Amino acid sequence: NVSDPECFPSIADNFQGIAESPQDYVVEYAENCGVDIPSWLIVNWRDSFDELTQDFTKINHEGDIYVFSNN
After folding, report:
1. Which of 5, 18, 35, 53 is the most buried (most CB within 10 A)?
2. Among positive and negative, which fits the CA dihedral 18, 38, 44, 34?
3. C-alpha distances in angstroms, 66 versus 8, 39, 41, 42, 55?
4. What CA–CA distance (Å, rounded) separates 63 from 71?
């Protein structure tokens, strides 16, 4: 039964975060790792986000990006 939460036990475990943009996700990830990205550094946020989340499922919903691990 799809309405039974037991059908999706790993969704909460695989949830990696939510962000308004690729930049927000990458910056928050870096900060959680103890890395400060200098303001003078030019970053391709989309490529960085794609590389960081290559093994993840990304869902765009109402302007936010929901990120889930595939493992």
Report:
1. 53
2. negative
3. 16, 26, 26, 25, 14
4. 25
Please give the Cα distance from 67 to 56 (Å, whole number). Answer: 7
DSSP string, 5-54: GGG-TTHHHHEEEEESSHHHHHHHHHHHTT-PPPTT----HHHHHHHHTT
Could you read off the pLDDT of 16-60 as tens digits, one per residue?
999 999 999 999 999 999 999 999 999 999 999 999 999 999 999
Q: Is residue 11 very low, low, confident or very high in pLDDT (cuts 50, 70, 90)?
A: confident
What SS3 class is residue 56? Answer: strand
